[in-house]
Amino acid sequence: MAQVIFYEKPGCIGNARQKALLIASGHQLEVRNLLAEPWTPATLRPFFGDKPIPDWFNASAPKIKAGAIDLAALDESAALALMIAEPILIRRPLIQSGDRREAGFDQSTIDAWLGLRQGSAPVPDGCAME
Question: Which of 103, 115, 109, 96 is nearest to 22 (CA)?
Answer without folding.
Answer: 115
